[in-house]
Amino acid sequence: MAKLTKGDRAPDFETSNDQNEMVHLSDFKGQRVVVFFYPRDDTPGCTTQACSFRDHYPEIQEKNAIVVGVSPDGADSHRNFRAKYELPFHLLVDPEHTLAERFGAWGEKSMSGKTKMGMIRSHFVIDEEGVILDAQYNVKADLSAEKALEKLG
Question: 4, 25, 35, 46: which is the annotated catalytic residue?
Answer without folding.
Answer: 46
